[in-house]
Amino acid sequence: MMNLSQTGQPTALFELDRADHVRADPDALSELMGMRARLMKLHGLTPELDDNGCIKWGSLTEADPDAELVFLGLDGDRGCFAAVPKRPVQVQRGEFMATITRLHDRQFGIYAGARSLVDWHARHRFCAQCGAHTTIGKGGWQRNCVNPDCGASHFPRTDPVTIMTIERREEDGSRRLLLGRGLGWPGNLYSALAGFVEPGETIEEAVRREVMEEAGIPVAQVRYLASQAWPMPSQLMLGCTGVTFHEHIVVDRTELEDARWFSEEQVREVMSGRPGLFEAPPRYAIAHKLLRMWLEKV
């Protein structure tokens, strides 16, 4: 199984010890919430960053006294926490993209986990089963219904999304790559097609369905490559590659502004940083890494 780090590209790892054994131990959690504990500095869901793009941390005394705190994990022997917003925070895509553009590569995984987790808590204060209030549990990795007749436990959700590079091979041996442009995307940005995995669907089925729906292209072989957490709000991007022998594109204008084939030379020119026919996905996105993997024939 291939991962992104094998292509020379940084992988956005969650660089804390998740310490599951601590989450269910109230005494251990309490001991970690002392003066050495660290609190991720968030304004709503937006992190405070230093000049190097690294997340700033403070002490737990800086949190609102009434705020719920989630245990992110251990940095050595120090507990790391984040505060849940008092109400759901609406973040525009442009604001989110501006934030992660400034974020250091090695910080993306920690931010993705923290953002997804505190956002989920802010939006799930009531039980989906009976409507009663819920309280935080297991260090923030669970919410429990307070209704004794219900008592349901709820867990943070992750939504799987396939994102795929689709290749068409020509009779002369050359390769073409299918890329699309979403509605309202800035500049001349093109990227790999993507879409949510539906209930009861495999990754391979989702790749074939999404490409057919968005571009009218049937896909034969599908292969998984790598994944990336994407906190908008809590997606897991499943990077895949596929092969097709069909050329004619039928764009679904409710999903995409455009989709087209690009030659290997055109993609290589753009990914080298030179002006080309399109703008490449940003370097921190798995789409950028998938394009590099396609060029390297991974």
Identify the overall geometry: elongated
- Tell me the distance between the termini: 11 Å
User: Helix/strand-derived class?
Assistant: alpha+beta
Given as residue ranges, the uncertain stretches (5+ residues, pLDDT < 50) are 1-10
Helix run count: 7
Query: N-to-C SSE series?
Result: HHEEEEEEHHEEEEEEHEEEHH
How would you summarize what this structure contains?
By secondary structure, this protein is of the alpha+beta class. It is built from seven helices and 15 strands.
Topology of this structure?
Blueprint: H1 20-23, H2 26-32, E1 38-40, E2 42-43, E3 46-47, E4 57-58, E5 69-75, E6 78-83, H3 93-102, H4 108-123, E7 134-137, E8 142-145, E9 153-154, E10 159-169, E11 175-182, E12 193-196, H5 203-215, E13 222-230, E14 235-244, E15 256-263, H6 264-271, H7 286-295
Parallel strand pairs: 1-6, 10-14
Antiparallel strand pairs: 1-4, 2-3, 5-6, 7-8, 8-9, 10-11, 10-12, 11-15, 13-14
Helix pairs in contact: 6-7
Please describe what this structure looks like:
The chain starts with 19 loop residues before the first helix and ends with a helix. Helix 6 (264-271) crosses helix 7. The protein contains 7 helices and 15 strands. It has helices spanning 20-23, 26-32, 93-102, 108-123, 203-215, 264-271, 286-295, and strands at 38-40, 42-43, 46-47, 57-58, 69-75, 78-83, 134-137, 142-145, 153-154, 159-169, 175-182, 193-196, 222-230, 235-244, 256-263. It is an alpha+beta fold and 298 residues long. The strands form 4 sheets. Strands 10, 11, 12, 13, 14 and 15 form a 6-stranded mixed β-sheet that branches. A 4-stranded mixed β-sheet has the order 4-1-6-5, covered by helices on one side. Strands 7-8-9 form a 3-stranded antiparallel β-sheet, with no helix packed on it. It is elongated, with a radius of gyration of 21 Å. Strand 7 and strand 8 (142-145) form a beta hairpin. The model is unreliable at 1-10 (pLDDT under 50).
